[in-house]
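Design a sequence for this backbone.
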């Protein structure tokens, strides 16, 4: 293994001293592809100066001409195709890929993306780097997360399978060389955008080992992922960039891994997070924790170089620390083939002509089709092209496609209306209506907002009315939470904030990091409104005024200072949609989200309901045409109970890329049988969701594993145009040991008249346990094609190791002796067949509190408790305030009469910890007072005598009587 031998190899190189210089750089040992890679890394490290090695810690590693080494850049985006580099094949969003439940397809998409990345690399090797930051392995625990579209699923097993498949395609199938070097995002505990660089999430040991690690570990363990990216947030009070958890990642792989920071993450540690006083200390801590590449200040590496150099000079780190990190990144560069002859590298002959190839276009269509998920069908689908040839395609997404922040640039766009029109051909007809109101904004003194008709737009101004026309017409699109976008009909461009804080009509769609095309209308009385700019640059959210030259300018601090407008509705979008639908054989209403608005990076959703205007549109069209299909094109689950109750058919798709329209049409008209399955629970309302800051799904009772409510749609749900019957599952054994495997064979018969795919899902439910177990948990799945009238036998597996959970009493995984229900079905709620197995695991003994017990290893805790950093470098402690508690279940208290705690209290005065039995207000055994220690990292040992307890095993509660931190404790004999 490279990391075990590289240090020794480097030492040997350095000890040998300066040898005679080779004839050329090509003759140096690090250029010899027949040498072991660890020797090559060591040789190259030994030839670099200290300054050159430090410079290589930055994302933009400079060229070293004297060794004929080119520049290298970490970090190209490739979540669902190559992003940001120009036109490329755009596949469905990751959440859509998750809905395919097809790891083979996802691997092929990863392979195509990796191939196109190589094509871009051939165009510009320095700028188009082969270290790709994809995929996102964070489980989608909360559908309000702004980056929901970037992940695969709420279930860690499904996430792990998908990330392993996608990275397998990205990295290629050579034993040594990498097509690209995939990096998993974002490790760890990342799922909140608001104050994401300052929020600390509490991730107890069970949540970490049972929910976080299973999502990240498979791709790293298989060698398909070459590293991870540290998350912005803090985990248990410590920035993820300095977390000791990063070293756990390294332990999962036999190959060398490279751990990178997120953009500007290194600056945050001493900046917004204030965790260290200066960058020298923070950069030293990051280096020791495992960060190998600092993504900071864009191309300017001076902060990184200066901080690391200062840390070296202060003795905070050693050159060995620098060499270790640089060695990690160099090992990846070697495996990418950078230093080898092209003939040795199987990927060196990939050229730019692979980008947007016909094969990749076909794959994009296949993927878009496979992720289409049928949510309801009262017989409206599939449509009949002869009977349903006149179709009204209406709604804000009816005739447009949207890209997201991490999307590539689509080389062409087949919209829903366009795809349906192509499918029907000359025999059918398609009418489209966006369902957006068209208005005119007038001022009380008779002026009218007018827009430029130039293709590249101009400044919006208030002028005397010219008698109407396109220049005065604005279409309003409502996206929920009061946010609207405005499109001028003079040139079809979206209005946004531009130079001089003036409004311009110059954008094709909302875009950019700050998304400057968002507005709100606020009523101010007398039938008048003011217009507020609502872009993502929060410091500039002001109101629109009218300048002396008539220009609309965002510069008013309050509504009173803003210009007032009267809204004259020229045409009702809903009425236009109803008119189109009323005269059609069928209506297709396409609603959903715009990926740059109300949920994206830096912005979480406040609600999960479909926007009000879209709800009204769905209702009106459905009532106007009984043959209405509602298509939800969305990056995340949306609550739409009325549509579920009343619409004849509902279909969900993610923003599925360039082939969305063709894929949708093929499903609507039955050319393809839908088989997408939901990769996350769809809740009925935001009331079903916990506090978003509660990352612990066991405590909050969420995701399908712990949710006991009534979801709108269950995890794994999806319908088909045919029916599948499940036969009795056959198990090759019904009793296994801790290392055993059960093979489950289940016959699946297509009893309908159409060929189709079924996603066979296998769950287990543990019947008896020391701890709270999931209601059910996904263990295996397979998407299988079954022709009409035929039967396919699906073979699934349950490994005893997968049934293990984290035993907080001993700090290790355990397979418990227990019975497990084996549940086979079409979704987490649609279980068709069951069986039972027994696992000969171990019984967890009662807790031994006489040994030192880590406070963080509690079984349960109150809502006010948080896990925090015991020290800046390592360890977790428990922080609580008066009335908070932590519980340690099934504890053996026989003969124990003394209580010792390790606690810290920064505040003046004293607090304490009560020891109680059975409940937070149960029998009091004793109290340990904790004096002020002067700081949160200053711990002291405090002891107290306890009342003795009989020989029964009891649940012990430690109850806080004031603010303090508890790192550990023990109960001993007096």
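Sequence:
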């Amino acid at each position: 293994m490279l990391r075990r031998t590289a240090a020794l190899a480097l030492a040997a190189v350095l000890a040998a001293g300066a040898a005679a210089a080779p004839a050329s750089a090509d003759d140096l040992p690090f250029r010899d592809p027949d040498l072991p890679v660890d020797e090559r890394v060591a040789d190259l490290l030994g030839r670099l100066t200290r300054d050159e090695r430090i410079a290589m810690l930055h994302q933009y590693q400079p060229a070293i001409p004297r060794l004929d080494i080119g520049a290298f850049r970490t970090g190209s985006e490739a979540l669902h195709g190559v992003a940001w580099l120009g036109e490329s094949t755009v596949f469905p969003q990751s959440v859509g890929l998750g809905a395919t439940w097809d790891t083979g397809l996802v691997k092929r998409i990863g392979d195509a993306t990796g191939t196109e990345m190589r094509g871009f690399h051939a165009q510009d090797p320095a700028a188009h780097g082969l270290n790709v930051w994809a995929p996102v392995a964070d489980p989608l625990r909360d559908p309000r997360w702004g980056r929901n579209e970037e992940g695969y699923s709420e279930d860690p097993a499904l996430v792990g399978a998908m990330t392993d498949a996608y990275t397998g395609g990205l990295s290629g199938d050579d034993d040594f060389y990498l097509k690209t070097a995939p990096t998993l995002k974002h490790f760890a505990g990342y799922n909140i955008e608001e104050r994401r660089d300052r929020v600390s999430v509490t991730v107890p040991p069970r949540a970490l080992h049972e929910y976080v690690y299973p999502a990240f570990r498979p791709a790293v363990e298989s060698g398909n992922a070459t590293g991870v990216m540290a998350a912005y947030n803090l985990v248990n009070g410590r920035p993820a960039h300095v977390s000791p958890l990063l070293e756990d990642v390294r332990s999962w792989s036999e190959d060398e891994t490279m751990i990178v920071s997120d953009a500007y993450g290194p600056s945050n540690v001493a900046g917004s997070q204030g965790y260290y006083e200066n960058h020298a200390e923070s950069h030293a801590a990051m280096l020791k924790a495992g960060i190998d590449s600092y993504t900071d200040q864009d191309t300017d590496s001076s902060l990184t170089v200066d901080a690391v150099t200062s840390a070296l000079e202060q003795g905070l780190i050693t050159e060995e620390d620098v060499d270790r990190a640089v060695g990690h990144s160099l090992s990846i560069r070697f495996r990418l083939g950078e230093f080898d002859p092209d003939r040795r590298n199987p990927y060196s002959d990939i050229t730019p002509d692979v980008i947007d190839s016909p094969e990749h276009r076909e794959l994009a269509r296949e993927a878009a089709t496979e992720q289409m998920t049928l949510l309801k069908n009262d017989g409206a689908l599939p449509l009949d092209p002869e009977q349903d040839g006149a179709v009204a395609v209406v709604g804000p997404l009816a005739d447009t496609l949207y890209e997201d922040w991490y999307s590539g640039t689509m080389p062409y766009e087949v919209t829903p209306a366009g795809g349906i029109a192509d499918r029907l051909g000359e025999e059918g007809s398609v009418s489209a209506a966006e369902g957006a109101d068209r208005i005119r904004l007038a001022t009380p003194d008779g002026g009218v907002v007018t827009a430029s008709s130039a293709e590249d737009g101009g400044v919006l101004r208030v002028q005397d009315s010219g008698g109407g026309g396109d220049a005065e017409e604005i279409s309003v699109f409502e996206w929920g939470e009061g946010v609207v976008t405005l499109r001028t009909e003079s040139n079809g461009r979206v209005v946004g904030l531009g130079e001089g804080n003036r409004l311009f009509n110059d954008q094709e769609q909302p875009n950019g990091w700050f998304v400057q095309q968002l507005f709100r209308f606020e009523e101010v009385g007398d039938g008048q409104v003011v217009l507020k700019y609502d872009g993502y640059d929060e410091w500039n959210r002001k109101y629109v005024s009218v300048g002396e030259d008539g220009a609309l300018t965002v510069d008013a601090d309050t509504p009173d200072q803003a210009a007032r407008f009267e809204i004259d509705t020229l045409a009702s979008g809903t009425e236009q949609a109803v008119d189109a639908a009323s005269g059609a054989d069928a209506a297709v209403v396409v609603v959903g989200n715009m990926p740059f608005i109300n949920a994206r990076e830096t912005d979480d959703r406040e609600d999960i309901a479909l926007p009000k205007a879209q709800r009204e549109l769905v209702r009106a069209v459905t009532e106007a045409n009984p043959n209405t299909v509602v298509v939800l094109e969305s990056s995340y689950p949306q609550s739409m109970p009325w549509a579920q109750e009343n619409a004849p058919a509902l279909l969900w798709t993610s923003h599925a890329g360039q082939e969305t329209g063709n894929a949708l049409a093929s499903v609507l008209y039955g050319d393809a049988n839908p088989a997408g399955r939901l990769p996350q629970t769809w809740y009925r309302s935001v009331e079903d969701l916990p506090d978003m800051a509660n990352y612990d799904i066991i405590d909050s009772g969420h995701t399908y594993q712990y949710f006991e409510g009534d979801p709108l749609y269950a995890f794994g749900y999806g319908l088909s145009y045919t029916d599948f019957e499940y036969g009795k599952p056959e198990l090759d054994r019904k009793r296994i040991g801790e290392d055993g495997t059960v093979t489950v064979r289940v016959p699946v018969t297509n009893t309908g008249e159409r060929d189709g795919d079924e996603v066979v899902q296998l769950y287990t439910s543990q019947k008896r346990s020391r701890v709270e177990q999931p209601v059910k948990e996904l263990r295996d799945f397979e998407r299988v094609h079954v022709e009409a009238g035929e039967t396919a036998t699906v073979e699934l597996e349950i490994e005893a190791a997968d049934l293990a959970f984290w035993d907080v009493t001993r700090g290790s995984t355990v397979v418990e002796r227990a019975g497990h229900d084996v549940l086979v079905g079409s979704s987490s709620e649609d279980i068709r067949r069951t069986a039972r197995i027994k696992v000969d695991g171990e019984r967890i003994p009662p807790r031994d509190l006489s040994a030192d017990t880590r406070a963080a290893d509690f079984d349960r805790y109150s809502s006010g408790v948080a896990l925090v950093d015991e020290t800046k470098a390592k360890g977790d402690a428990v922080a609580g305030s008066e009335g908070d508690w932590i519980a340690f279940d099934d504890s053996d208290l026989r003969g124990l009469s003394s209580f010792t705690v390790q606690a810290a209290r920064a505040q003046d005065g004293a607090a304490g910890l009560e020891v109680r039995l059975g409940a937070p207000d149960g029998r009091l055994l004793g109290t340990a007072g904790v004096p002020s220690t002067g700081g949160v990292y200053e711990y002291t040992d405090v002891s107290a005598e306890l009342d003795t307890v009989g020989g029964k095993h009891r649940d012990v509660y430690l109850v806080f009587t004031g603010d303090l931190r508890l790192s550990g404790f023990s109960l001993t004999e007096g």
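The radius of gyration is 30 Å.
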